[in-house]
Amino acid sequence: MNENNVLNKTIEILNKEGSKEAYEFLISEKENIDPSSQFYNFLYCLAALSDQSEKALFFLEEAIIKKRMWYRPDVLLDDDLISIKDSERFLICKDISDARYMEAKKDATTLFTWEKKTATNLAIALHGNQQNIEVCRNDWKFLESFGYQVEYVQSSEIDSQDLFRWEDDAKVQLPFALKKIGSEEYQEHMLCGFSAGCNELLKSILEQDINCNKLILASPWIPIIEKEIEKVIKVLNEKEIEVILICGKEDEDCYSMAVELAKLIEENKGIVRTIFKENLGHEFPDDMRSVLKSIL
Length: 296
Known about the structure:
Layout: H1 3-16, H2 19-29, H3 37-49, H4 53-66, H5 88-106, E1 111-112, E2 121-126, H6 133-140, E3 148-154, E4 157-160, E5 163-165, H7 174-178, E6 188-194, H8 196-207, E7 214-218, H9 225-238, E8 242-248, H10 255-267, E9 271-277, H11 288-293
Parallel strand pairs: 2-3, 2-6, 6-7, 7-8, 8-9
Antiparallel strand pairs: 1-3, 4-5
Helix pairs in contact: 1-2, 2-3, 3-4, 4-5, 8-9, 9-10
């Protein structure tokens, strides 16, 4: 399993069995991957939740002092950490992390990998929260086999070391990244997103003059439909954008939103294809290439 699989499995165990069992599973997988700052966040939070304060502080120090990681301040205010939040060791780590966050924020900028036109068709992919361009590239690179030039956008909103997020109430970033393409034209222009990246795509299409032929929304975390659904549907129809929705039926956060969006697009005679997968939670499908083969 990769790290994302491990963390999703950890959440599943936490919900079904409890924090101690989830912590023990996470520890058993630690040596099998190169732990990110998010992995360490799971570790020390689960240790703190399962009354293992010493281990929680050990992993917090390993992340921040030994591996020089950092987190946005809200992360270390999590209620999961109540049992250690008054410890001097915790406060030292938090001060160090907060200082690194403020320093990193000074240089934070939106990244877009496009340099020049190299194919007839263009696909642009956005990562989810607590991800980055490398994770995004691992997920979407397969689109090259369908003849697309695949490029990636990384948010300027920092989450923790080397991980980024899309803030629901923040200004859209995609339209300004796309200015880099200039007057270059493509036969087909496809936008792809995972989780919160899907919300950024819908916000961008709604708020700015962005056109595309296809929109692929994978495990879509799309709170925008709670307040702007009528406008979203109208713009998708006006621009004749084909929406491809892929979501796991076990995705407790996003399945209902994906179903609602698909239903409303169909009711308004829009173009939508849905792939709702059995036994899949909030994850990027391992078989995405085969899932999209008949469509692309």
